[in-house]
Each structure stands twice: as structure tokens, then as C-alpha cells.
Amino acid sequence: xxxxxILGLFLFFLPVTAxxxxxxxxxxxxxxEKVTVLFNRLTKDVVLEPGQAEKIRPHVEKIxxxxxxxxxxxxxxxxxxxxxxxxxxQERREKRQAEEDxxxxxxxxxxxxxxxxxxxxxxxxxxxxxxxxxxEIKN
Length: 139
What we know:
The chain is mainly alpha-helical. The chain has helices at residues 2-19, 31-42, 52-80, 86-110, 113-123, 129-133.
């Protein structure tokens, strides 16, 4: 009888403890962790030769540094209540696109042709036409 009581209590409290697991915002990543995550994501399918990783890592660090600076700038503008004009937003997009093109050019110099093709394939977003249409506001 005791075994059934203990088993019943165990089965009762098991779902309750599963719900008590910690949830909330994830921890902030350090600069090095961000660099490692981005580096791994960019070179996931690319088999690097010795020495290529050391050439790529400074470029990835620059990307992370630039991202952090842009986020800090946007947070500062948001706190001040200043909104960006369409021209400023377009300028930011063009600058980011130019930086991305420069990074791709550097990667093209570092990687072989086959490696670069795998790198480019890894950059493409896997988006279906249905998911793009779901972003539209429907009345």
C-alpha cells in the first residue's frame, strides 16, 4: 500500500517539477562567444585548410564589433526618442550591404573556389514563399 501511495505522489509531483524549470531571457553572450558562434555558423559546411581559420577570424571579429556598435547606436537613439529618417535608414542599409560585399570579397580571396561555393550556399536563407507572404498584414 505504501508503494502505491509513494508512486501516486511521485506521478503527481513529476509534472509540477517539470513546469518549475527556469525560463526567461537567455544569458548574454560574451564577445568571444559571439565570434565563435558566428564563425561556426559561417564555416559550418566548409572544410577549412590549416591557416584559413586564422585568416577568417579577424574578419568575423570585425563583423561582431560592428554589430555591437550599431546596436548600441540604435539603443542610444531609441532612448533619446530620435527616429531615423528614410534616408538615414537607406544609408545604413547601403553601408551594411557594402560591408557584407567586402567580407564576401575577402572570403573569396581566402577560400578556394569549392569552399567559397559551400560558404555562399550556407549564407542563403531557407525561406519558403509562404513564409514571406505571412509577414504581410492581412485585413
